[in-house]
């Protein structure tokens, strides 16, 4: 019998955080906090998910090429590729580049100074995942001081409570600060302005941040408290002496309205809104604030859990990381907010790596791989909002740059729905030119439908976005002399090929572009069948184009090629494995392609960045290679120093995943991969235990979700064999469940459940209902 170890839900440290990458994260999908836990000089780094530089017109202000010149550049690139002139093709696509997306920035700091009568001892701080709280506890003489912090979703506030058990009292002071431009401050409040522009660190010749006459987001921070001490507040600083009980709430508000829309209001209106929220939260009281917060968090968090029978520190850490990924998604992406960025909800830098933006050539997508399978589908809502907004801006980009219908997007986007290619007309096209990012994002909408989203979502959200992306592809495709269709120019995200001793990124038809195009055209037909829209012209056009696309290329060496033309790769161990998209997150595990993908992974090697390790884990799971998983897991679990560099993933002291630097996709991708170990449903069947790592002890994972919305609990023994499984569904569905080579058809009533187990021969799968067994 597996047991739910406390270590799989709690991370405890015996010293305060000396670095941001050792601090513990809290969040409610909009307001984020990093708690350092210093008993004397506490710092809580605060983020507001709407704190983005620039504005809705930032992209238009940067666009440098005219529509006519863009058409000329595109034609030039295509002609150059036909002539084998890769230098000229590179120069042409660079002419299409705009500048850069905007940056997600830190919002403020809560500074809490606590004076004690003597030294502190017996210190510990813990992040409690099930409670979404950080508890700091230490002794002062014979007394014990405890601080508990959390960020409440119901009450939209950061909350810190302090209590002293014993005769000790403490003196406390509270200040609010911000690295942003501070417009005003007073007793328990500050108003701020976001920059008009913030260039990324990979553009070091540009000033950042820039504050000028261009409009930008304004905001406010407000702190309110109550305590049992004597108030000594003065000079705008909150001070109290002789405190044994304290409740402190901090709220934020900004003038941001919605993705891709202009701000509204001023710092004064933001201050008024934050004040109302803070006063309301304080009136609730410490106990009820925590109870409401915990109940709402557990409504999501307790849906799924991984546990092992026995095990050791390693398996406890694996279970913790599965839970931590779910915790981070709950904390950084809630309905009505913005999606999780490269760093989720958390950032302390005014010039963060890659602008802490949405990098949509893998990273943003990986953030949401576990949303459906790990039973957090509503947490993907902000991603759908972003994609819908990008459709609008992407239609302008497609029309202006490519004279194409529909919508497209490139490598990066932001809260303003940026869709242009970045790079300042000099960026390497490997990371600055890739117009199929929107096509990849469409998969998440289609998957939401496959996992059971209602017809309204399919018709009103998925269908217009997917069909518009299909229109772009139909105009983007190039017809060859033999009538086949290709994609030109084409890149494989961030990778290169070599010709004549030189390295290039721009060619015709990369494998990932071909895969995405085939998938999207198929999705058009799938959605049309569901919605009764098969007579729509776009459906016939997509089907006809699909028939004219080449098959995915496998080279003479038996590996999947990166491009349709087999090219030499100067970086054979590259972190991106985009050419294997068809296996995961796609669903092509046909024998020929699976064998080629396995050879390709072997050639790539195991070690890489944190997020690349997560992708490889998911790929090996799809390929049914559980024996390859332990080594990859060990690489993902190894410690990473806070100053580590290079491309070796691992875990920072607070268990954030290292690229390096920190990127949250490694954490969220790990959770998605673990789900794939235990349950897969991409092939129209619910596969139980398809790739449980060969070194895992007996265990149980409950609460995963399989297509078309079936909740799966599954238990295995020490040899990774099925012990029992339970399937349940909110609506009536008929599914096929499989374990090893045995399968059964299951009819689930709405709200009903079915129990599965091995048969008497220990090889077949049987249904157990009401104590009876039936094939």
Automatic annotation (TrEMBL):
<protein>
    <submittedName>
        <fullName>Alpha-L-fucosidase 2</fullName>
    </submittedName>
</protein>
<feature type="domain" description="Glycosyl hydrolase family 95 catalytic">
    <location>
        <begin position="306"/>
        <end position="677"/>
    </location>
</feature>
<dbReference type="InterPro" id="IPR016518">
    <property type="entry name" value="Alpha-L-fucosidase"/>
</dbReference>
<dbReference type="InterPro" id="IPR027414">
    <property type="entry name" value="GH95_N_dom"/>
</dbReference>
<dbReference type="Pfam" id="PF14498">
    <property type="entry name" value="Glyco_hyd_65N_2"/>
</dbReference>
<dbReference type="InterPro" id="IPR054363">
    <property type="entry name" value="GH95_cat"/>
</dbReference>
<feature type="domain" description="Alpha fucosidase A-like C-terminal">
    <location>
        <begin position="680"/>
        <end position="747"/>
    </location>
</feature>
<feature type="domain" description="Glycosyl hydrolase family 95 N-terminal">
    <location>
        <begin position="14"/>
        <end position="257"/>
    </location>
</feature>
<dbReference type="GO" id="GO:0004560">
    <property type="term" value="F:alpha-L-fucosidase activity"/>
</dbReference>
<dbReference type="GO" id="GO:0005975">
    <property type="term" value="P:carbohydrate metabolic process"/>
</dbReference>
<dbReference type="InterPro" id="IPR012341">
    <property type="entry name" value="6hp_glycosidase-like_sf"/>
</dbReference>
<dbReference type="InterPro" id="IPR008928">
    <property type="entry name" value="6-hairpin_glycosidase_sf"/>
</dbReference>
<dbReference type="Pfam" id="PF21307">
    <property type="entry name" value="Glyco_hydro_95_C"/>
</dbReference>
<dbReference type="InterPro" id="IPR049053">
    <property type="entry name" value="AFCA-like_C"/>
</dbReference>
<dbReference type="Pfam" id="PF22124">
    <property type="entry name" value="Glyco_hydro_95_cat"/>
</dbReference>
């Amino acid at each position: 019998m597996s047991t739910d170890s406390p270590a799989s839900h709690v991370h405890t440290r015996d010293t305060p955080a000396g670095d941001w990458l050792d601090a513990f994260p809290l969040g409610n999908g909009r307001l984020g906090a990093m708690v350092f836990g210093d008993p004397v000089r506490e710092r809580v780094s605060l983020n507001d998910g709407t704190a983005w530089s620039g504005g809705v017109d930032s992209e238009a202000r940067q666009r440098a090429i005219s529509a006519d010149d863009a058409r000329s550049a595109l034609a030039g690139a295509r002609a150059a590729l036909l002539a084998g002139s890769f230098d000229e093709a590179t120069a042409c696509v660079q002419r299409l580049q705009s500048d850069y997306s905007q940056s997600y920035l830190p919002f403020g700091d809560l500074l809490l100074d606590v004076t004690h009568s003597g030294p502190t001892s017996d210190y510990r701080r813990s992040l409690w995942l099930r409670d979404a709280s950080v508890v700091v506890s230490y002794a002062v003489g014979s007394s014990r001081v405890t601080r508990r912090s959390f960020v409440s979703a119901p009450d939209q506030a950061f909350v810190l409570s302090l209590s002293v058990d014993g005769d000790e009292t403490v003196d406390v002071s509270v200040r609010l600060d911000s690295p942003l431009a501070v417009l005003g401050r007073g007793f328990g409040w500050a108003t701020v302005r976001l920059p008009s522009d913030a260039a990324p660190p990979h553009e070091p010749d540009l000033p950042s941040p820039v504050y000028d006459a261009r409009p930008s987001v304004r905001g406010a921070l407000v702190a309110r408290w109550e305590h049992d001490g004597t108030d000594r507040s003065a000079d705008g600083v909150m001070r109290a002496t002789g405190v044994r009980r304290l409740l402190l709430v901090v709220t934020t508000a900004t003038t941001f309205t919605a993705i891709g829309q202009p701000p509204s209001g001023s710092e004064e209106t933001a201050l008024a809104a934050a004040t109302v929220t803070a006063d309301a939260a304080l009136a609730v009281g410490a106990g009820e604030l925590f109870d409401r917060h915990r109940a709402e968090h557990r409504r999501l968090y307790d849906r799924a859990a991984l546990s092992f029978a026995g095990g050791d520190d390693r398996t406890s850490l694996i279970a913790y990381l599965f839970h931590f990924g779910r915790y981070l998604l709950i904390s950084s992406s809630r309905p009505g907010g913005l999606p999780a960025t490269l760093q989720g909800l958390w950032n302390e830098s005014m010039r963060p790596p890659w602008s802490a933006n949405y990098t949509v050539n893998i990273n943003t997508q990986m953030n949401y791989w576990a949303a459906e399978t790990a039973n957090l589908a509503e947490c993907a809502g902000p991603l759908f909002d972003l994609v819908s907004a990008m459709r609008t801006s992407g239609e302008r980009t497609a029309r202006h740059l490519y004279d194409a219908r529909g919508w497209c997007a490139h490598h990066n986007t932001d809260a303003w729905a940026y869709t242009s290619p970045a790079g300042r007309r000099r960026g390497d096209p490997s990371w600055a030119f890739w117009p199929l990012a929107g096509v990849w994002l469409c998969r998440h909408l289609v998957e939401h439908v496959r996992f059971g989203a209602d017809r309204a979502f399919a018709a009103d959200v998925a269908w217009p976005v997917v069909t518009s992306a299909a229109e772009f592809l139909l105009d983007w495709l190039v017809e060859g002399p033999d009538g086949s269709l290709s994609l030109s120019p084409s890149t494989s995200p961030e990778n290169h090929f070599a010709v004549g001793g030189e390295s290039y990124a721009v060619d015709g038809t990369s494998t990932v572009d071909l895969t995405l195009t085939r998938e999207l055209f198929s999705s058009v037909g799938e959605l049309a069948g569901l919605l009764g829209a098969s007579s729509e012209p776009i459906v016939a056009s997509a089907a006809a184009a699909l028939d004219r696309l080449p098959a995915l290329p496998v080279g003479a060496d038996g590996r999947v090629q990166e491009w349709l033309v087999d090219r030499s790769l100067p970086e054979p161990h590259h972190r991106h494995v985009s050419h294997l998209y068809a296996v995961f997150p796609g669903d092509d595990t046909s024998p020929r392609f699976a064998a080629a993908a396995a050879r390709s992974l072997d050639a790539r090697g195991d070690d890489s960045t944190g997020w690349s390790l997560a992708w490889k884990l998911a790929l090996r799971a799809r390929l049914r290679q559980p024996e390859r998983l332990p080594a990859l897991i060990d690489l993902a679990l190894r410690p990473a120093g806070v100053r580590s560099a290079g491309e070796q993933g691992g875990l920072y002291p607070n268990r954030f995943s290292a690229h390096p630097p920190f990127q949250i996709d490694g954490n969220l991708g790990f959770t998605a991969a673990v789900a794939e170990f235990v349950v897969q449903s991409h092939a129209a069947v619910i596969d139980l235990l398809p790739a449980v790592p060969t070194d895992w002890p007996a265990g149980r994972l409950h609460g995963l979700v399989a297509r078309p919305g079936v909740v799966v609990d599954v238990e295995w023994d020490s040899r990774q064999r099925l012990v029992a499984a339970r399937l349940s569904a909110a609506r009536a569905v008929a599914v096929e469940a499989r374990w090893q080579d045995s399968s059964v058809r299951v009819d689930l009533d709405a709200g009903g459940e079915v129990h599965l187990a091995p048969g008497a021969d220990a090889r077949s799968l049987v249904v157990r209902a009401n104590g009876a067994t039936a094939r």
